[in-house]
Specification:
With about 280 residues, this protein is of the alpha/beta class. The protein has one domain: Rossmann fold (3-Layer(aba) Sandwich). The protein has six helices and twelve strands. A nine-stranded mixed beta sheet has the order 2-1-3-4-12-11-10-7-8. Strands 5-6-9 form a three-stranded mixed beta sheet, with helices on one face.
Length: about 280
């Protein structure tokens, strides 16, 4: 009986320790810690580049590490422990807004301590879009017809936001979504006409809110990203690098400097310290 009681006590103390750790705010003097949640590739195997989540995980882990971030990632929803060591959660997976009750609790605890979330393409599609919209500012419902592919004409509405400043309107062969559930916190950065109908729908936005009992958190959504090669578009890359820093409540130009060369001898440079202070 004593052994069983001790085991239960250790389990409770461990859970409390993780919970306390998850409540610690990010230290702006330290490198930004990022977790990339990807999924198995869909839309056919091979090199067609559609919904190639693993390729994004590998490529963008390198891009962000080379700019001084600490990056972790996996093809599974992060655990409490993984998010306890994360400042920005990047969600790029089919139906990425579909979460089990336990995953919802993990995500909401992360956001309550001020963690930020970046949702890409159908990372904001959910079986409960009304709920995920409260996390991301907007979401699309799984199972509904709500996408259209073709040349997407991205037009910026807020050109003064730190994320979008100086980036011109652009066109890209991609997939746009419509039929969104939204919340009042959604702040439109850019829209695009849907190729199949001409309806103008937000495709890029931010949201800031505070969950009950928590700290303010930031969300960013880029609803394009159907093709992996489109993330190499210089306008898209700049948007995402700025958005990740902004969502982590850091200066938006944190990652837009050129990556430093590796030190002599062939070793890799470790994560450099991020700059202190809030985002612009």
């Amino acid at each position: 009986m004593k052994v069983r009681t001790l085991a239960v006590l250790c389990t409770v103390l461990s859970a409390v320790g993780v919970s306390m750790l998850a409540q610690q705010p990010a230290d702006p003097a330290q490198p930004l810690r990022i977790f990339i949640r990807a999924g198995e590739k869909t839309h056919g195997a091979g090199g067609n580049g559609l919904h190639d989540y693993p390729a994004f995980l590998g490529g963008w882990s390198t891009i962000l590490k080379d700019r001084g971030a600490v990056v972790d990632g996996a093809l599974h929803f992060p655990s409490d422990e993984e998010l306890a060591n994360t400042d920005v959660f990047i969600n790029y997976k089919g139906d990425g807004g579909t979460c089990s009750p336990a995953e919802r609790r993990t995500l909401e605890a992360f956001l309550k301590r001020g963690g930020g979330i970046v949702s890409l393409h159908d990372g904001m599609c959910s079986d409960d879009a009304e709920w995920f919209a409260t996390i991301a500012g907007g979401a699309k419902q799984h199972g509904e017809r709500n996408s259209s592919s073709g040349v997407i004409k991205v037009a910026f509405h807020d050109r003064d936001h730190a994320i979008t400043r100086g980036i011109p309107d652009f066109e890209i062969d991609d997939e746009a979504f419509y039929g969104l559930r939204t919340t009042p916190e959604l702040h439109v950065l850019a829209t695009a006409p849907i190729p199949s109908s001409g309806e103008v729908v937000p495709q890029i936005w931010t949201a800031e809110r505070t969950l009950a009992g928590g700290r303010p958190h930031r969300s960013f959504v880029y609803m394009l990203g159907h093709r992996i090669e489109n993330f190499a578009n210089p306008h898209v890359e700049t948007l995402l690098l700025r958005a990740i820093a902004w969502t982590g409540q850091r200066p938006v130009d944190l990652f837009t400097h050129a990556p430093a060369p590796p030190p002599r001898g062939g070793g890799r440079r470790g994560g450099g310290a991020g700059r202190a202070g809030g985002a612009s």
